[in-house]
Here is the input.
Amino acid sequence: MIRIALRMLTGDTAKYVGLVCGVAFAVMLMAQQASIFVGLMLRTAAQVIDVVDADLWVMDPRVIYVEEIEPLPESALWRVRGVAGVGWATPFFKGLTVARAPDGRLQQVFVLGVDDASLAGSPPRMLQGSVEDLRRPGAIVLDRVGALFIWPGEEPAPGKVLEMADRRATVVGVAEASAPFTTFPVIYTRYSEALRFAPPPRKPLSYILVRAQVGEDIDALAARIESETGLLALRWQDFVWRTIRYYLTRTGIPVNFGITVALGFIVGAAVVGQTFMIFVLENLRQFGALKAMGVSNGTLLRMVLAQAGAVAAIGYGLGIGLAAVFFEVTGRTNVDLRGFFLPWWVAAIVAGAVVLIILVASIASIRKALTLDPAVVFK
Amino acid sequence: MNGAVVTARGVAKDFPSGDGTIRVLHGIDLTVRAGEMLLLVGPSGCGKTTLISILAGILSASEGAIEVLGQDVRHLTPSAAARFRRETVGFIFQQYNLLPSLTAAENAAIPLVVRGERLDRATRRARAVLEGLGMGAHAEKLPRQLSGGQMQRVAIARALVHDPPFIVCDEPTAALDAASGHEAMRQLRASAVRPGRAVVVVTHDPRVYGFADRIARMEDGRIVEIAEDAAAIRRMTEH
Ligand SMILES: Nc1ncnc2c1ncn2[C@@H]1O[C@H](COP(=O)(O)OP(=O)(O)O)[C@@H](O)[C@H]1O
Ligand SMILES: [Mg+2]
Here is the structure.
């Protein structure tokens, strides 16, 4: 009977297409908006995510997200290095400055200063050049997309020069950096150079990157650093969350995206529910005939659920496919949308939402079919 | 061989109406025998449809006893009634009630599928039944590609495909012109009437009375006359 149910559904082409498109539309809207939201939130912590060689970030306890830097005194570095279990601890500078291209073009840039000696905190994915070249005077590594902002239309390459704070900087390498929330180019340089390129605050030390000694329990070490120095020590994941939580609670971004996602859900549920109801109502006579011929209510329920399930599955596949294609295409063709992707768990949550939509949509229809009096067939 | 397939004794049916109920069937006594085609006739609104709905286990009687092949049909739970209908009864509805997106053969196969057979196997058997009704060339067509008479033959095939011992038809000729109606009744008579099977046909079309073995005439919810033989049937037709 399930096959017959599906034939009833696909036989009514107009409504079938309408139902599938309704679900697909809702799925695409929800998946796409939710993914962009997730992507934006991850962007807020891009520069934390891109540091791969530290176990802990140590900072002033007043720091509530990565951009709001409370500089540390130089002595903090020594105090952290003195905590038992610390393998190494290096300074990390994060600042903003203005870069001037040779043609006079100005561009606001992030300057990240990594430890002069160890280069800890430098970009993990080099496209051209080598991190070691940062040791040369005035050397910088630029993120690829950021370079495109500074030199539009030109593939970035080592050898190009910039001016920051009236000092010459030479590009020695190009790296792949995660897109930051504000799409400024990211410039990596040594800590001592960074203080010259960017106007240094009174206390220049933004963060301390810490690697634990081998075998050390990271959480225990973090607790020890906090109790001995009065600073805040966070695993990178926790710092990412701290930053994201700031944007979640202090900005209108989640509300904005939430409204769109909810709209996708509501419109989807309404359109699908309405159309499905009409579909079932128009087929009530057919259902009645089947009931007269001895189809039980259980089977009838399975038939309606199969129809709803088919609509959900096909619409979901279509919608999630479209969303994935959207990210695939835009990620390749549009640098502003690079790095946005469809997380599997967003796809899973949207699948849950579709199940909900289809249940909400079919409840009324199911009631109609189940309470149907088979005597209607003789009317 | 001529044992009763259906016996109804003292059957009454009340429908809710306003605050109370309205009785539309009064003390119906009726037997439908194996191997016969019984016509149930009478003016519109006299209770014919209600009566066959009760005999076929679609409605339950308010009073009286109904037995079909020894089974008490009056006191069935909804699911037992559904099982009774799918195992015992073949239906032909006035409106055909074919599923528009299934082919003729698939439509005719439904009772087998309802009993748990696979659609493709059931469709193969339905095709054979359609062939027997001269519908072989139309087996793969959709209902909207068929004429009224052809649709009615698909409905007949659907009532026969699972070889039920009891077939009920509600006004099978009402939606057809005189010639197709006559042809449909001829086919129904030829294909449906079998030893061991009871066929009840509701009609108010005197032109098809000649196909009956017996005719029960109803008025105002009562059976007022039963024509038991050809002479009596002829007399009833002339009135
Ligand atoms: N579900 C119902 N509720 C109330 N009255 C009904 C219902 N079904 C039929 N009736 C009434 O019962 C009477 C008999 O109807 P029906 O059996 O359809 O007659 P027929 O088939 O002979 O035309 C009519 O007066 C009709 O209005
Ligand atoms: Mg009637």
